[in-house]
Specification:
Length: about 220
């Protein structure tokens, strides 16, 4: 077995079968994705449109990969994101959502989205506060070309385990609260949270999708 397949066997044993494992392949070459694919992975996360496009081209023979966009999405890249990705985890503002909705209409697509939320102040991260999301949800619910499936979060650095758990649990509580409001279109069954260093805690708090990079592919040389 190669190193990627070995690490995958190890990490899979820690993840319940109903939790979707997204292998975050940013900075790693197409060949690493191919190895993970042959070890059974079908969900891959990338955070840059251009970098992803090159790998997608090199892997065009693997037609059943589900591509997840997990990076900061600039509005001028929104169209490419819809064209190239099955999921966008990082829809972080009403303005971006409305743009994705309009472009989805133009492209005849209905991208699956997570709304990125921020439950702790973090100047380095985007996302809705619960208060702002409460204001914007009525508009989001009218977007016919968006398939909003749940929430996504990235934690600020430097939290201890108790704070990490509490923050993930607040995201879970927010999703449950929104679920009970029975919106027409907006769904809240997905929780995209947890990375290599905190995925076990995220699963404890109800994560349905974990985004794992280093624990599968090894340490990144480039920081992104
Ligand atoms: C890079 C990244 C990950 C994966 O992080 P690891 O520490 O390598 O597991 C997950 N989510 C997002 C949004 C990322 O940018």
């Amino acid at each position: 077995m190669n190193a990627i397949a070995e690490r995958l066997t190890q990490v899979r044993s820690q993840i319940p079968p109903q939790v979707r494992l997204i292998a975050v392949s940013k900075t790693f070459p197409a060949e690493a994705i191919r190895q993970a694919y042959h070890a059974g992975i079908r969900d891959f996360g990338e955070s840059r449109i251009q970098e992803a496009a090159e790998k997608q081209q090199a892997l065009a023979d693997l037609t059943d990969i589900c591509w997840h966009f997990i990076g900061r999405l600039q509005s001028n890249k929104a169209k490419k994101a819809i064209a190239q990705f099955d999921w966008i985890h990082t829809c972080d503002s009403l303005k971006l959502a409305l743009r994705l909705d309009r472009l989805g209409g133009e492209l005849g697509k209905v991208p699956k989205l997570c709304l990125q939320v921020k439950l702790r102040p973090d100047p380095n991260k985007q996302g809705w506060t619960p208060e702002q999301l409460a204001v914007d949800l009525a508009t989001l619910d009218t977007c016919l070309h968006l398939d909003i499936q749940g929430l996504m979060t990235i934690l600020p650095l430097g939290l201890n385990e108790r704070e990490i758990l509490a923050t993930f649990q607040s995201v879970q509580a927010l999703a449950l609260e929104l679920q009970q409001q029975s919106w027409q279109r907006v769904q809240m069954q997905e929780l995209s949270m947890g990375m290599s260093n905190d995925y076990a805690i995220a699963i404890q708090a109800g994560a349905t999708m974990v985004r794992l990079g280093r624990i599968i592919f090894g340490e990144r040389e480039l920081l992104i």
